Amino acid sequence: MPDSVLQATRSVAADARERSERRAQSVSDTAVEEDEAVVETDAVREAIAKAFADHLGDGFIDQHITPGSDLWIRIDRSAWVDAARFAKDRLGMTWLDFVSAIDWLPSPFGRDMEAEQDWVVHGREDKEIDPQETGVAGGETRFQMLLRVYSTTEHMGVTIKADLPDGDATIETLIPVFAGANWHEREVWEMFGIHVAGHPDLRALYLPSGFEGNPLRKDYPLVARRVKPWPGIVDVEPMPGEDDDAEEGSE
Amino acid sequence: MTLEADLDINDNEQLRYIAAQAADARVNVELETEGMTLNIGPQHPATHGTLRIVAQLDGEQVIAAEPIMGYMHRGYEKLTEVRTYPQVTTLINRIDWVGSFANEVPFILAAEELMEVEAPPRAQWIRTALFEMGRIANIMLFLGDMAVQLGGVTAIFYAFRDREFVLNQIEAATGGRFHPNFNRIGGLKDDLPAGWVEETKSAMQSVRDFCDEMEDLVVGNEIFQARCRGVGVIPADVAMAYGLSGANLRGSGVDWDLRRDAESPLAWSELDWKVWTHPDGDSFSRYWVRLQETREATYMVEQLLDGLPSGPIMAKVPRIIKVPAGESYVQTENPLGSMGYYVVSKGELTPFRVKIRTASFSNISITPWLLEGVLVPDIATILASLYFILGDIDR
Question: Quick check: ipTM above 0.90?
Fold first, then answer.
């Protein structure tokens, strides 16, 4: 039995005793720190976005900051690997969170995908397709790649977006920068049909061999939903403490 | 091969030397070994579900190993696009089915962030307490199961016995042992039942007793140490590049825990607790870190129950929930590691897209790298020490 392990585990009990004494003090401390932190992190996020802009030059397109919370940047796809390497090597964002994609195409199935009961409550809408909209930091094309990296020392993350031109959904692989991107990129390939250039092993990760289509594309119908509509809004139970007369109100 | 009489099982270098000798040993030099493909799973007990591993072997040594998933793929990311926000929690309960409550929280927080709704303090504290109890219920299973992978069957019975106390409390509060579905956007479904706080405190004591038991029975066991120390070593930089999280990362010496390091409306910052790390990065350290975390979580639950604020458990939210257009990403430190939901809303009843970032997916993506060169019997221990839940990989 190694002494070090024993000592470390037995010290848990000692820690517990100290806890109660320290608790009262720490609560009052954190309240003060939080106020300062909000201001500081925003400046940090501005600085991170600026660092990307300076490094990527023309490759940097747009940014979006939710104060005290999160940062998005949008880059040209030619800067995809460069941005990842810059985040990892220069900004210390060495932890790979995920690689994914979004299909911004409005669902061509419209309200068909919702149950009849939903139509009763909300009224049936026309099948007219909404214009394509994209999210924070903008976007111009149907497919958009997402990369999120995080710094475990600075506790700061960034979501990097890159538009893929319509008709050429191809992106360069991130495996040389983050080895763990391998499976994420396989998932993007099979679910969105986005080709990952330079990926050594582009095979289906989840879907059975012979599966046709890319399920997470918006124009891929969810067959189960069309055959048997989900019970929908009738299932929603009243919220606790809600008045009976508020039943009618929608907003 | 005979072991030297003065074999010191704590000497990693010596152990590695012996392992290397064993790997290189040929039964008969005249009979060359030839490569062999070994299929493990998808129904092998060491795979906690339906993970299948195809290993290329040279004798006892693994040359290449490839996990094959998808047997449990349920397409949750697609299904969320045709579910209203309150309906989504029913689905995502089934991602990590051993610590279900924790699955709901990041999604609900992401939706609340977009709606600019904040649950009342009492709801946040109860959420945090149930979150930590979910962690305890989840990791206790691991603490027992890891010993089973090494042939020590006793521990799992203790784990199931004592885990029952925690599950009973979760059931008493939420109505569901495995799938609470207790979170609502803006708060919780119900308040705590009468007498629950006291019962939970006694359950926490049982968990701590269980942890002490595991400390002696498993951590202090010579076989356990010999099989786990220096086996499946993950250096910190590799762990980071593969996106490992939770105890797998802290077991490699990275001092990072989202409960402490990220701003969250939940009550973790109000508590006094410690993040446990271990520098070795081997199977043993991952077990040890999880054991400490479980004990730590019991103290956290007790603090939460002591300081439980009074007040309502639901904020005012509209009856029909439409989430304003926007994007938000919320990540929390779940039992298996960091779990996040990237929610894209277009202001409708259903999310436009939900990217579910699960811990096990990234944790298990390191296996081709990690299993290369290990011995066949170590596959089971390494996989067990990474601790994954199949639903958390396949989603």
Answer: no
